[in-house]
Amino acid sequence: MSGFLSGHRGGQLQPGADQLVARARERFVLQDYHGAVHLLEEVAATGHAFADAHHLLGVSLSLLGRMDRALVEFDRALELNPRYLEALIHRGLVLNELGRREEADESFRRAALADTGSVRGLPAPVAAQLANRHAELGQAYAEVGALDRAIEQYRRALELGPTFHDLRYRLARVLIEAGQALEAREELEQVVAARPGFVDAGAALGLARYISGDAAGAREVWNATLARRPDNPRVEAYLNMVGRSE
Fold first, then answer.
1. How far apart are CA 5 and CA 120, in angstroms?
2. Nearest 10 degrees: Cα torsion 10, 15, 16, 18
3. What gap in Å lies between CA 48 and CA 53, rounded to an integer?
4. Which of 26, 40, 42, 124 has the CB geometry, 3.0–4.6 Å to 57, for a possible disulfide?
5. pLDDT, greater one: 228 or 59
6. pLDDT at residue 176, as a whole number
């Protein structure tokens, strides 16, 4: 089964967008901002970057003095999450440094008014941090083949971050690897509905449908995915696979 799944070879997860972001965080902590930017730009180029990745890229760029580029990344983060408190604050700081005081004040006002709410009785920022910690554990378990434990950790992560589509996608990948295609399909349907341009999720959804016996549904998803991102070799390979099996 794992031969079909992108990012898995020899039973181990290969570096994907989520792992590149994790490595970028490590470079950031070590104050290697150039290294962090390089990794995060690689993620952004795939079209799979989420708000956290764009925010971290913006902060790294600002620390390297590339203020205009930093603003672009903060704006991208806020497009994905308009109430992203840290992105609003950092955007305001950069605007202030550029002398754009009125725009900076507006960003700070938005930050002051941002209602981050709560998740399961925890402040939303705290819940998000804990969700990411569970996801890191899930990834670690998956890398050593402890798929049941990985699934458990990803599910805990999603309890705290139900709108974190990157984590839901990662859960689905492990579910497919564990032979739970129907469960993976349910998770991926949610991801694709929320992020129709998420090509890897579309490819994985088609695979989950195919494995669960729905070849026609798989073809439908892969054709739609290919229409959004033409010349995707993996999706083309899946469609050829379906064609040969008919």
1. 33
2. 120
3. 9
4. 40
5. 59
6. 96
Three-state SS annotation for the chain: CHHHCCCEECCEECCCHHHHHHHHHHHHHCCCHHHHHHHHHHHHHHCCCCHHHHHHHHHHHHHCCCHHHHHHHHHHHHHHCCCCHHHHHHHHHHHHHCCCHHHHHHHHHHHHHCCCCEECCEEHHHHHHHHHHHHHHHHHHHHCCCHHHHHHHHHHHHHHCCCCHHHHHHHHHHHHHCCCHHHHHHHHHHHHHHCCCCHHHHHHHHHHHHHCCCHHHHHHHHHHHHHHCCCCHHHHHHHHHHHHHC
Q: Are residues 50 and 109 in the same domain?
A: yes
Q: Which residues pair with 13 in a beta bridge?
A: 8
Q: Which two tokens stand for residue 173?
A: 């990948």
Say yes or no: 98 and 148 in one domain.
Answer: no
Both 23 and 107 in one domain: the answer is: yes
Q: How far apart are CA 51 and CA 20, in angstroms?
A: 14
Rounded Cα distance between 202 and 180, Å, is: 17
Q: Range of 224's domain?
A: 181-246
Structurally, the chain folds into a number of domains equal to: 3
pLDDT for the residue numbered 98: 92
Q: Is the pLDDT of residue 18 over 90?
A: no
Euclidean distance between CA atoms 167 and 136, whole angstroms: 10
Q: What is the pLDDT of residues 56-114, one digit of tens each?
A: 999 999 999 999 999 999 999 998 888 788 899 899 999 999 999 899 888 888 887 76
